[in-house]
Amino acid sequence: MNAQQLTAAGGATSFVLVFDTGDEVTKELLAFAREYRLDAASFTGIGAFQSVTLGYFEIEKRDYKRIPVNEQVEVVSLVGNVALGDAGPKLHAHVVVGRKDGSALGGHLIDARVRPTLEIVLVETPAHLRRRSDPTTGLALIALEKE
User: Strand 88-98 to strand 104-124: parallel, antiparallel, or no bridges (unpaired)?
Assistant: First the structure.
């Protein structure tokens, strides 16, 4: 993955991240977040995957059902955020992928391998977001400060 800073204005910094064939999306995004010490950011992306694992959160099991997609797909929409968790930055991303027949699949992004490219625009904000474990679901949810 290659990254370049685009702008820095008003406390917000924008980057473009360009992934290459074979790059592991979640691994590379987390490495970038750690390197740049991101506390709060949002991102969008388009491109293609050679494989992806989607997740569907099963509330009664308090865990994600893993949905492997082992074929070339287009990334129709990738949206997500980065917030600080107890052990460093955490990603939360959802993705919609398109198959060659035009059908679409979507869900939580668990992991994916790029082919041929993935382009992400990431915007870091000056705010600090923190994730805390929710006892009801077991999910690490953004904890907003109480005024």
Answer: antiparallel
